[in-house]
Amino acid sequence: MGILKNLEIGLIYNEKEKKKMTYEVLFDYILQFEEDVDKLAPINLSDRDYDFAPKNYNYRMYVYFPDSKNRYMILKDVLDLREVEWYSFYSNDFFLEEDSYENDIRKWFEENDTYPTDDIIY
Question: Which string of DSSP letters, residue by residue, matches the chain?
Fold first, then answer.
């Protein structure tokens, strides 16, 4: 196993654009995040590189909300390099409201194997 157990990688969206945040804009950024994670995934490692690679690559998605001037963690994708499995999580803290729209979002996440997490890092 590698020297590090976890490698944390944070990607921030909407910091330059400062778009007014809507669910449509948020989901566009979620799609962009998934594409970016695919580009950053450690593929084609040699056996030696694999031996020293971290067990988990944790990719965290942050979005800047100009109205509140805050960044929020939205998603976390984890690549377990030893099992070669992907795990996806959404921020339980961010999708906390009990309204029909957010309930639908949580339901959609879970139907797509994305589960709540309280593992939030800022």
Answer: --S-SEEEEEEEESTTT-PPP-HHHHHHHHHHHHHHHHHHS--S--HHHHHHS-SEEEEEEEEEETTTTEEEEEEEEEEETTTTEEEEEEETTTT---SHHHHHHHHHHHHTTEEEE-----
Among 21, 10, 24, 3, CA closest to 77: 10
What's the whole-model pTM score?
0.88
- Beta strand 114-117 with 70-80 is unpaired
pLDDT in tens, 31-58: 999 999 999 988 888 888 888 889 999 9
What is the Cα–Cα distance from 19 to 14, expressed in whole angstroms?
6
Q: Name residue 56's beta-bridge partners.
A: 6, 80
Q: What is the spatial distance between Cα 120 and Cα 122, in angstroms, rounded to a whole number?
A: 7
Q: Tokens 């906390």, residue?
A: 96
